[in-house]
Queue: 3 jobs
Job 1
Amino acid sequence: MKAYFLAACLATIALPSVAAEPAAPRLGTGYLKSGPLPDSFAPPPPAPGSAALARDEEGAKAALTLRGGPRWTLATADADLLSPKATATFSCTLGVAIGPDTTPRLDRLLRRTIADFGMSTSAIKHRYARPRPFMVNGQPTCTPDWEPMLRKDGSYPSGHSAIGYGWGLVLAELRPDIAPALVARGRAFGDSRRVCNVHWLSDTEEGRLAATVVFARLNADRTFQKDMKAARKDIARAKARPTGCDSEAAALTQGVPQP
């Protein structure tokens, strides 16, 4: 799949409504030199009439009840991957204010992996071209400006989920003492796409699988390992602490999907 379309689903949310379709931002260059994962990596999305599709539909229906509430607000924030505050998503879980000014080497590491994790799903998206929930149920998304582009970009698997879960795995390696919490936040990051009405539950689950494969490949990359060491020092030296964590924790308890 062309990077143009994947970039659409990774777009920043802080954009004004305009008549013309917004230009797609660039994802940058990742660590891995090879391209997306092969399209044989994931099984097909749930078939019509299957129990798996019924589960997806139930998950989408449940997500609509969260619109306008705290979980919807958090999901809207999680949709932002390219603004200066994007990497702060994991600040509360890490206990450190992540950002270009507070943890510059960690921030650069996470931003560089966006291309690796996000583009890992592109070939599979192109193969299945699955319609997104908002295209089926006709309900709004949390990023309305990007709906025209999202209509052109397959729903399965979720690139956002791959990135969020991948970031959770990266941070869990940096702080193994709180690994369960970091990985759980990565899972919730992906589920924010269901809450936003732009991905089905199975899309986010396959995104996590893609992230796991990419993370294994990243750990064999010398540059990535070098940057991990630098990021670990950033975390150890960081003094700035995140704010608003009680509100985030409360929002994360809403609308949690069942296994």
Job 2
Amino acid sequence: MSEFDLIRRHFNRPTPNALLGIGDDAALLQVSAGNVLAISTDMLVSGTHFFPDADPFLLGHKTLAVNLSDLAAMGAVPRWATLAIALPQADDVWLERFSAGFFALAQQHGVDLIGGDTTRGPLNLCVSIIGEVPPQLALRRDGAREGDDIWVSGKLGDAALGLAHLQEKIVLPQAALAACLAALHAPVPRVALGLALRGIARSAIDISDGLLADLGHILVRSQVAARIVFDDLPLSKTLRDSGQSKLALSGGDDYELCFTAAVENRVNIEHIAAELQLPLTRIGTIVAGTGCVVHDVNGHTINIEGNGYDHFN
């Protein structure tokens, strides 16, 4: 199977949102009136971001999901994506499963695959995602203000707990393992939440490297500090019972949203949670200064080793 046969068989799909999609030297896109482009790129490398024997359907899902999560954090509507993929060999069965997982999520969010590249090499997957957002409504990292509430969506730490099991650092009971592996392998990008938070959240970020690391980016960009109440973190019973609760702070791979909002928006945020049927939990407060302090319900500081994942540390 040639490179072009591979593309035609597994990745050439209709692109109703593009003026010109796959098949030329470049795609042609039309930005909707009043919007600007939001663009993000994420790379998944075999052995670093996923195990070499990962289920290709789930890997296809996650390859797009982690990029959609970035657009969710910007309050952007996903529109287009490109995919660059290096393959050790042109495995037709593997590619059929991978593309099925990728396009199932793409169809769910109305994303057109408009181009990319294929080459032979160690398994490496790189997506660039493109969305649209009115510039005045884009959620950014530099908008947090002193006195803001800090919120997170969903539950934290289960994906990291599932990874710890796969790495044989812990052993999870079978009943709990399935949910943790689902959190790790099939994250749900919070696109609808990002859109609902337009005009309500002052800052936002997706939690990919761990809550402390990613919230830290907001703090630096906004030139503020934070106080987090550890007991308020939304944890599953599995994580609490595992003795690994601190993974909620530094484990990574959650792909939930962390955002800040003025106190007067608490009711609005509770309405969003009810409408989306998605737990949104207030976990702390933005304060003056630098850095993030984590304390328990009694105000005692909790020491945390490591803030989150860093590829070069």
Job 3
Amino acid sequence: MRKFLPNPVINHDFSVDDSRKKPNKISSRKDEHISIALSESPSVELDPGFKDYRFEHNALPEVDFSEIDTSVNVLGRKMNIPMMISPITGGSDKSRKINKALSELANDFRIGFAVGSQRCALTDSSLEITYKIRKYAPDILVFANFGAVQLNYGFSIDECRRAIDMIDADAMVFHLNPLHEVFQMGGNTNFSGILNKIEKICSRLDAPVIVKEVGYGISKTVAQKLADVGVYAVDVAGAGSISWSEIEKKRSNDIVVHNASQAFIGWGNTTAECVKEIADNVKDIKIIASGGVRTGVDMAKSIALGADFCGNASEFLKSAMISRSECEIFVESLILELKTAMLCTGCRNIDELRSAKIKKVS
């Protein structure tokens, strides 16, 4: 007989009012995810891999720091730096406030923004308001999002179009999360035939399709399969940041889940490893580096290893829960770090950074 631990205590107090409570299980789960991610630091033991690479320092760069251009153009929109706020949340009043604050920040700094999974709003239209951020972010890349596994649980191209229309998105993101779903209470674990369904979506949807992991990495083998069916970009979301198996362990009082999830501490491919292997082996697909991309130097290394742009969720979320000023400090630090790395490698723009000399040191 399965044994259970005492009910886990979830702290919902993270400086956001909760004046509008919906009896929606997915909404409650999303708030629990945020609470645990903020208060209990469910990080993995793996380093994202950037420490394994080192730039060749250029002491004579022949570059004017004030003229360094960190901007990139993606899907017809100009971003000031190659960074997006990766999917975080949506579906509750707490997450509505977080999405509003971060989308305003993203628009002010001209970086991309992806909403969290829209699954709950696609099944309960009253929750759509928690995702509607385009009015706060009229000028930037905005990405729609739900789990690819939902294509095996009733979702189709109609839900993709609704997700895009809901937020006037520039692209559709499908997240892959098999390990997460296994340990999530009531998780959806039928991942059979997903590639074929993604292919059909790519051929019929009037928007680019991006496929991302949630913290365990996308290998070159998987990336090649996705490129072959028409996926525009992969977001590697490698190991080195938040561990979803750890988050679900903290949510569960099932002792078997607790024990089994322990075996997956340190599971996954690191972010740097994923980016390099895909860049070296897979053609005709864009690469987003996320999973432990915490500094402008991490961004610079990601670009030099082959990424087209980068993503981060946890650092933006942590900053947002402190203040708008803290968010601004974080982004301004990213920009200064990135520009300094470019100066010290003799790079005037992001295209030159792609060819910067970088080597593995371990």
